[in-house]
Write a structure and sequence with these properties.
single chain, about 280 residues, alpha+beta, disordered N terminus
Length: about 280
Amino acid sequence: MLSPCRLHRAGDRIDPMELACAEIECGAVDKRCALKRLAFRKRNAFTLVELLVVIAVVGLLIALLIPALSSARSTVVSAVCKSNLRQIGLSMQTYAEAHRGQFPWTEHHDEEQSWIVTLAPYLDQVDAVRVCPEDPRGKEWMAGEQKGTSYAINNFVADPEVEGYQGSLRKIQDKSRLIVLFEADPDRDGGHGSDHIHCSQFYSPVYKMLGKVFEMGFREVDTDRHGGSAANYLFADGRVASIEETAIKEMIDVDIEAGTNFAHPEQTHAVKIQN
């Protein structure tokens, strides 16, 4: 006969209720079978220390996964934004071909509609591409009759009243370096005229004198929308590239030294080509 001391440590107390339940599970009042089952239960139960270790391991795994998931989400969102810009770029080129090479104008020149509205007939679904999923004001741009957009056009190519205006896609020499669409800063005024970037004012003498060209001249551009360090840009040749904010600042330094403006159709030498 198997002794209880073989199944339990010396001094262990056997709960009568547990023993009774174990006997029932055995299908008979076989104490030897019941004691075996009871000992098996006790051997396989988690101790408090083991439970704490498991919780600590799970917590560590979660801490490691969250940054990875966040990075993956940022990559996906940026890819959607790039897709939006590519589709807008294709519609812009189609529009230009149908209008003697001209870009659509801004609200300043055509008060009835923004350039994004002008391009609507050349897009399958303009509302599906007008807003970047990372734009905190995305829902606002989609509300009301006059819908807005997360993207803003370079006023050098879309406003005939700007000095240095070059509104013909055909006449732009270096299409691969000229940025025509920017991701606009969500803090900009959402009223009339918010559909374009005042690129012609990037290097205002006042901003240069104060040493605040980036802070003031580029305040309409969201230079760190994706991953907190970069933004997407559409070039005149239809290419879309992600450019780090640090690279934009380097381009500004080159421009200041050379007295140029990389957003000007004829002064794009400072632009760094990125994928």
